[in-house]
Amino acid sequence: MPDDLQARAINTIRFLAADAVQKANSGHPGLPMGAAAMAYTVWTRHLRHNPRNPKWPGRDRFVLSGGHGSMLLYSLLHLTGYDLSLDEIKNFRQFDSKTPGHPEHGLTPGVEVTTGPLGQGFGQGVGMAIAATHLAATFNKPGHEPIQSFIYGIVTDGDLMEGVSSEAASLAGHLQLGRIIYLYDDNHVSIDGSTDLAFTEDRAARFEADGWHVQKIEDGNDVEAIDAAIRAAKADPRPSLIDVRTIIGYGAPHKQGTSKAHGEALGDEELNAAKENLGWPLEPRFLIPGDVMEFYREAVEKGREREIDWKMKLDAYKRLHPALGAELERRLNGQLPEGWDADLPTFPVDAKGMATRSSSGKVLNALALKLPELVGGSADLTPSNNTLFDQAGDFQKDNPMGRYLRFGVREHAMGAALNGLNLFGGLIAYGGTFLIFSDYMKPAIRIAAISQAPSIFVFTHDSVGLGEDGPTHEPIEQLAGLRAIPHLTVIRPADANEVAQAWKVAISRRNEPTALALTRQNVPTLEGTANGMLSKGAYVLKDFGTPEIILMASGSEVSLIFEAAQKLAAEGHGVRVVSFPSWDLFEGQDEAYKEAVLPKNITVRLAVEAAATLGWDRYAKAILGIDHFGASAPYKIIFEKFGFTVENVFAKAKELLK
Amino acid sequence: MPDDLQARAINTIRFLAADAVQKANSGHPGLPMGAAAMAYTVWTRHLRHNPRNPKWPGRDRFVLSGGHGSMLLYSLLHLTGYDLSLDEIKNFRQFDSKTPGHPEHGLTPGVEVTTGPLGQGFGQGVGMAIAATHLAATFNKPGHEPIQSFIYGIVTDGDLMEGVSSEAASLAGHLQLGRIIYLYDDNHVSIDGSTDLAFTEDRAARFEADGWHVQKIEDGNDVEAIDAAIRAAKADPRPSLIDVRTIIGYGAPHKQGTSKAHGEALGDEELNAAKENLGWPLEPRFLIPGDVMEFYREAVEKGREREIDWKMKLDAYKRLHPALGAELERRLNGQLPEGWDADLPTFPVDAKGMATRSSSGKVLNALALKLPELVGGSADLTPSNNTLFDQAGDFQKDNPMGRYLRFGVREHAMGAALNGLNLFGGLIAYGGTFLIFSDYMKPAIRIAAISQAPSIFVFTHDSVGLGEDGPTHEPIEQLAGLRAIPHLTVIRPADANEVAQAWKVAISRRNEPTALALTRQNVPTLEGTANGMLSKGAYVLKDFGTPEIILMASGSEVSLIFEAAQKLAAEGHGVRVVSFPSWDLFEGQDEAYKEAVLPKNITVRLAVEAAATLGWDRYAKAILGIDHFGASAPYKIIFEKFGFTVENVFAKAKELLK
Known about the structure:
The structure is a homodimer. Chain A is an alpha/beta fold. In chain A, the strands form five sheets. A six-stranded parallel beta sheet of chain A has the order 10-9-11-12-14-13, with helices on both faces. In chain A, helix 13 (356-370) packs across helix 18 and helix 15 (411-424) packs parallel to helix 16. Chain A is elongated, with a radius of gyration of 27 Å. The N and C termini of chain A lie far apart (87 Å). The model of chain A has no long low-confidence stretch (mean pLDDT 97).
C-alpha cells in the first residue's frame, strides 16, 4: 500500500475523532490524535477480529484503557465495518447514541470492556489474558488451537498512575501472561499539565521489575517500528508493554503536546489549523476518503474469512475430540450444562449450624463438579473465604489449566480481572475477600454492574460478627453502599440453605454481577429456608398466628428474629418472620408478591441487621442496626453490647406493639 | 549494654505479643515475632519520642502499616512507658480495651495512625512525610530546626501488594520524601501461603524505579545491620525502603516461616516450644524481666529530656523569630487563627449563578489567605475541581514550601496521604477529585472517619449534571454510600452561599472528616441560603403559606423544588421548601429542631435528588431520584429525560397532594 494511503488512513482516525469532539463540543481529541498511528497498526496489521460478528470467540481483544479517548475506538469500529454508523459518530456524546463519552460494553458493538475510570481497562485485560491462557491450556491440542487470542490494549499515563494497574501488572508478570500486549500512550501530559508535575518514575524499570517485556518506540507515528515491536511482543513469553512516545493532540499546531489538547474540543480555528498542518481538507467534516474507507473495510472480508477458517478448524477439532469440542462450544456459547443445579446440597435443620462462608465452600464444591467453567480465587484470604474447591489446582504459569486464582492482596485488580474473565467468554469467575475490602475494589464492582459483567463477588466476614479483628475490619456501611449500585444484586443469606440458593441465583445471572455477603461465625440452619424462596429476595419464613407485627432481617440476624418471634408468640402475639436476603431481588418482584410478604396494613415492623440502618426505612420504621463503628471482642460479646440479642429484639418488638 | 539484655529485650516483645494472642486466642503472632528485632532497633536506637507526651510535636512518627501485627506496637508502647498498662495487653482484643485487633488512632496513646486495611499505613506515612517536609521548609531556620521528624514504618508483603502503596511509593519517590524510612518485613509468607504463589516481582527494582533508596538486610535479627541501614537511610535524600529478610513467627519451631504463624494463636504447646527454643521461661506469661523493663523505660527519661531540649530550642527560636514562632505554636496546637472565617465571601442572589465547584474555588481562596495551614491538591483534576488557590505554589522537591499538592491520578494515595497530613499536626489538608472517584479512595475515607482524621474531601461533578462524560463518570450510589459511613459528614450545598458555609463546617470539624459534593454545572444563587443555617443540615428555605406539602432537596436540585414550589403556591397550595444539604448534620440536631423543619403532621413530602434514592425514605415517602446508571449527553437533556424538571416536580407534587 502507498505510504500516502497509510498516512491518510491514520489522519482519518485523527479527524473523525476531532470532528466528533468539535461537533459535540465535548470530549477528548488529544488521545485519538496522538495514538492514531499505534491504533492503526494494531487494527490493520495485527488484530484478528470480524467486524460483522463482534462476538466471534476466536477474536483477539482490544481494550482502550484510556476510555476518554473513546472516539479513537468509535472511529476504528466505524471504519472497519462494525455496526456503528457515521451518524452515531456524529451523535457522539448525545442522548441514546451508541457513542457515549466513554466506551460501554453491551451498548456498542465491538466494545469489549467498559473503560473510562482509569486502570479498569488495564485490569480487565489481565483477566481476559488469564481466560485466554486457561482456555487455551484446557482446549487447545497440538495442531488444533481454537483459542489463540491476544489481548491488545492502549494504556495511558493516567492508567499507569492508578494503583489498580500496579496490582494488575504485578499479577500479570507473576503469571507471565504473554498474551498481553499493551501499548503505552506515553505523551507526557495529563490534565494538570506535564507528567513532570507528579509522574516521574522510571516506568520501563517498573514494568521490568514486574516481569514484563518492555520495548520503547521513540516516534509514535513510526508504524513500522510499532509493528516490529508488536511482532516481538507476540513472540515473547512475557506480558508486553510497548512504551510509545506520542504527542497528545498531534497535528494541532498550538495545542499539541499540552494539556489543552486533552479534554476539550480544539475549537474550529485550531481544528482547521490542524487539518492544514497535516494536509487534510477542512471540509467536509467527518471526511472519510473513499480509498481509505475501502482499505479499512478490507477488515470485513478478512474477518469473514478468518471466522470461516476458524470454524472449519473447529469442526476438524470436534471430529478429533468430540467431547472436548462439544464442551468448548457449549462454553463459548455461554450455555450452562444440563442439570448444573440438580445436586446442590441441602442442609438439615440444625441449631448449631455453620458459618455461611463454610456452607458457601460446600456449595462451591458441588457447583465446581458440574461447572468446569467455574474458576475463582481470593485476594489472599483463601482459608477465610472458603473459596478453594477440591481439585481446583492453582492457575500458575506452569499450570495454566488450574482453576484457582491466587490474586494476592490485590482486591482491586481481582475485581477488574474478574470482569475481564467473565466477559471473555467460556468461564464463570468469582473472587473472594472480606466484605470490608469490597471498598478496595468498589470501582471494579461498579464497572461490572455498568457493563453487564456477571462477576460473582464472595464477601465473607460480613458484619461485626467477625469479632476480634475489630472496627477496621468490620463492615458497617458496605451493605448499604453495595445495595445502592444499580444492576448489582446483593444477597446476604440467612443460613446454609439460603447460601445454596444464593449461589444458584448468582450463577443464573449471566448478564449482571452478584455480591454474596457471608458470615464468619456459625449460624443455625433454620426450618423453612430450603424452599427456593430466596430468589424472591424476601419471603415469609414463618407466621406465628395472624401477624400484628413483622420482624424482618437478613443473614445472621434471621435466627435472632426467629427466636424473638417464638417468644412473642408464646405471649400470644401474632408475628410474621420475614427472611430478607436481598433488597435487589425483592424489588424485582411484582406488587402483588411484595404486598403478600409485607402487607401495607401491617405497619408495626422491625428490621434487624448488624449493619448501617440506611435504606431499611423503605421497609420498616423501626430498625435495629449499627450506625457507628464496630468493636474488637469475641463476637458474641459485640452482638450483646450492640443489642443483637433475642431479648433486645423481643423487648423492641414489645415496645412497638404497645 | 550486654548482648544478652538486647536478645532478651527483643524476645520480650516476641512473647508479650505471642502470650497476648494466646490469651485472646485470636490475633497475629507471626509479625511481632518476626519483626521484633527491627522494631527494637527503631524504637531503642532511632525513634525520637516522649512516651509521657505522645503528642509532643517534635517527635518522629512510627507507622505499623501491617496493623495486624498490633501486638508488636502495643508491646513497645507498654515497654517504653506509654499510658498502656500490662492489663491492657492482657485484655488484647477484648471489648472496651485499648488494645483492639488493629491499632486505632485516637483510642490508644502512641498510635499515630489507624492501620489494618493494608497499604493505609504506607500511604498515611507519605502524607506525614509531606507534612514534615513542608513544615520544616516553612518554619526551620539555620541552626533552629523545630521540625525534624522522620517517619518510620514497618510495611509488609500485603502492604506492598496493595495498589495504594504503589501509588504512594510513586508519589513519595517523585517528591523525594527523604524523611520516610520504611522497613519491609520481607517474610515470604502471606495468608494463602508462600509469596511465591502470587508475589514474585523484584521489589527492590520496583522501588528503585520509583526513585527510592533501597537497602537489603539478609538477617532480620541482625540489629547492627538494621541500625546501620537506618543510619544510611537518614543520610540519604531519597525515601528509603529497607528490605529486611525475616522469618514469620520466629522461634516457633513448627510454625515459623509458614502461614500457620500468621493469623492465629500458636497454641500452648507451640508457644511453650518457642519459648524453650529461644531460652525463655515458660512461666509466667507476659514476662517482662526487670532489667529489660528498666532498659526500655529509659525512653521515658530520654523522651522527657528530648522534649525539654526541643522546647528550649523552640523558645530560642521564638525569640529570634517571634512572629513565625507564635504562628508555629498556634498551628502545632491546632488552634484556628482569630477571625479565620470573618471574610468568607457571600454571594448575591443570582438566577444564573455559578457551579458550586466554582464558588468552592472562590471560598477556598478566601480561606487560604486566612489559614496558612491550609494545603491541598487534586488527583490530576485541578482545573475541574477548582482546588488550586492563588499563590499556593506547587509542593515539589525543589519547592517544599508550596501549598498545592499534585497527587497525580492516584486518588487512593491522595486519600491516605490526606489522613497523614491532617494527623501530623500543623496543617489542614484537602484533596479533590470527581465524586465518582471517591470509589477509588473509599478505604482511605473510611480510615479518616474511624481515626478522627479531619480530612476534607472535595468531590466535584456530583451528579448526572456532569453531562457528556456519561455513565462511567456519573455518580449514582456514591452519596448514599458516603452518607452511610459513621463520623463522615457529607455536605451537598445548594448554591454559592451554602458552599461558603460548608467549607466553614469542614474547617471547624477538627476531629472528623468532611466530604463536599459540588456541581460541575451552574446553579442559581438563591434567596435565603446565606443565613448560616447549612450547619443544621436541613432548614426551611421558604414557606409558601401554611405548608400542606414539604419539598426537600440537596445541591443542584434545590433550585428545582424552589421553582416548583412557586408554581404550586401560584395555584394556592401551601408549600414548604427545605434545603437539605447534609443528613449527617441534620441527624445531629435535637428533636425539637428536626420537628420544626419536618413536622410529623406534614406527611405529604417529596424528596428530590439526582442520585440513588436509597436512604431518603427516612424523610419522605415519595422520592424523585435515579436508581439506574446515567447517560452521556448535555446535562440539561439528561435532567429532562430523567424527570428533573420544574414541570415534573410540580406534577409529582400535585399527584401527592391529591
